[in-house]
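Record format v2
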Amino acid sequence: MVNSIVIVCEDSPFGKNSAVESIRMATGLLAVGDIDECKVIFKGDAVYFLNKNLNPEALNLNRFSNIMRLIELSDLEIYVLDEALEAADMGHSDLMSNDNLKIVNIKEISNLILKADMSFKY
Amino acid sequence: MVVFTFVVCAEPYKYEAVDTVINLGEAIINKGHQILGIFFYGSGVYNIKGDVLTDDSTRNLPDRLQDFSKKHDAKLAACSTWISISGIKSSEFIEGACQEGLGGLSDLIARSDRVIFFGPGG
């Protein structure tokens, strides 16, 4: 039976709702409690979503307050690809503050996916 | 016997995810396995809306999906949040389809040996 899930998100937080939905689905599945592990990997332009200075209002969009609150309140583990951060000219200090947020390399991401019963890209 | 669940996030016609779901589902069942259910998420919820108008050269996907579900006793459930966003009324659902929260998805995943995710496309 499927008991561990990895969700991969690599799209920009603007223009597509993948980042928000990845978090919503992961926190929702964890909250229900049927599944023991659900982790989210951010790579590509998705890493901008985790920038603490992200300002959706500059684009006349709503702030991601509710989804950020879900991250804070849940034990969701979020993994960020180091190469994607570098490509976005971001570092650890640019990321939102969260104990469950970890910067990892591609090998570690590969291991996360291999160990999970199920993985998919949203 | 292997128990499968499909998760469909792509809308019909623009993408051929639900065509693949039906064809793959038939092949899986012919091999003696089971399709526990199909969960529709994101724009994928449009797949359970019936009453589409198709001409002779266009396949009627809601009908095909409804027939598949009936024939193989496969559950059809759509994310209630996305149903609300889409404005689809329950009276417009194809026969046998229902709306459920992420608890419904969690239950299907936890009871399946394999989950195949048909992403949001694009």
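The first strand of chain A starts at residue 4 and ends at 9.
The first helix of chain A runs from residue 18 to 32.
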